[in-house]
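Re: beginner question about structure tokens

> Can someone show what the tokenized structure looks like for a real chain? I only ever see the sequence side.

Sure, here's an example I had lying around. Input first:
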Amino acid sequence: MLSMMLSIMPSIMPSIMPSILRSIMLSILRSKMLSIMLSIMPSIMLSIMLSIMLGMMHEVCTFRTDRPCALFCTNGSKDGAVQVAKTILDGTPCAFPKTDVCYHGLCQIVGCDGIVGSSAKEDRCGTCGGEGLWCKVVKGIFNHDRSSASSHCKKVSICSLSKARLPTKCYFCYVEALVIPATARRIRLVEDKPAHSFLAVKDQHKNFINDQWRVQHSGDYDVAGTMVHYSRRGMWEKLTAKGPITSPLHVMILLYHDHNLRLHYEYTLPMNSSWWLEQQEHSLRPHYMWTHVGWENCTTHCGGGEVRSILSCNRLINHTRSTVPDEDCAHVARPQVHRRLCSLHPCQCRWKLSEWSPCSRSCGKGEQRRSATCQLQLPSGDFVRTRDERCPQPRPTTVHGCKGRDCVTAWEATPWSQCSTHCGKGIRVRTVTCKNPLGICHSIGKHPKEIHCEDYSSCFEWRTGKWSKCSCSCGRGLQSRAVHCMHRISGRHGKGCASSLKPSSYMKCHQKPCDVTISAKKITSQRLATLSDTCTQDQWLVFCRLARKSNMCQDIRWYKRCCQSCRDFYNTASRIVPKPIVSLWDR
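And the corresponding structure tokens:
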């Protein structure tokens, strides 16, 4: 036995001892110290010593999701897990239930083709890189309620006493929900809602989950040749398996307090090409079926009646349903019509009231009347008269006061118009009409038709002066006048006039034709000096600038009125030689 320990200890120590204690233990085992201890110490004492040393050096290695390819171990001390190795062996699974493995210290994706880094995936049929066409999906819902408990039970009830001071656990029975055949894949079992019951599965080799009156914890279990993942969160359970399973899988429900359960199941089964072609051909053939599409009206209005469901013929082709005439479903068995009770309230009596009559007087105080009769409603919906004592009391009033409106004065006035003037005092008007049906309205309440108003929003206007004389005695000239924006009442100047309405300040004027030859010779070099000496300033500032630009300074008439501008004109060397006169409007 001792020799066996010597052969095993060096192989297991790298995974269960710290580095320092590991070196000490190896030195003891590989030296002659062990033989000396055996000679001087009884075997019982030696075994006790070895067990104490091994217990102190016991380690537990854990898996961390943030670093799945590193090894972390702890010996139970308060220091927690410490890193023992930066990397573990290549090929170690690192993302269960996926097929990813560690490679060079990193968790690498492995495709279904077995190649590291490949993105190939299995389809729902288990074919690598397939399109999911060679298998069929089987899914449905298993319902169970209290009324069917005795007929579905496969095992008798049992009660077991749990921990002290806790109530007794009483399991009613096991109910078999379904049997999933071998070769099934992508198995999924989910409860519709949380319930006081437990999912259970077992295979023919006595591997199980929650069987034999034992409720197990969430985890992964080997059942039917595949790894089954069982998850329970509170009272909600889910069971999944990738598959394929090698033997039939029996799905059961362990009923506890809750006997009402809905279980959703789904899995895939492989199929051959002929079956697939047959299913494709079957889906393209039309199928006819009866469906319940609604309810008829209740046969009674009170006292209890019946409503019946409405059946409609539907055609199903290529997963598309449409409504067709009922004659198309003549070869299909017509299902039973659903019936249910309706209008269960008793038939009651109530007051039937007529409309109010017109007021007894067209002008002044009068009264209005109506009839009130007690009637009983029949199941058919008709009403028959009955005694007034059978209707709710008190009886509704049948007379009330009113007032005739024919003599009431009712004047109606339209909105006021705008003020008649926009500068000063004016009036506003409106239309006042009598709205009495007889056209009689008292004049005391009549609204006024006119009111005074004042408006000074448009008091500014353009005002013009008289036209001046023509600017020349022969040929074409200009006339000017003063244009000002002025207040109509005060006469002050302002800026309230519209610029688009401003009158013109200048106007063309025509005189007799000018003698160009005589006029051009009037200014000579001898008289130019005399005219320049007598010049003081221009008489027409605006016209003089135009006269200089238009070579009109050669005319003595323009020269006298614009002597300052024309003097500068003659001082220019290029203008000494007189040029023919060109009128301003001849350009």
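Each token stands for a local structural state, so reading them left to right follows the chain. The mean pLDDT is 76.
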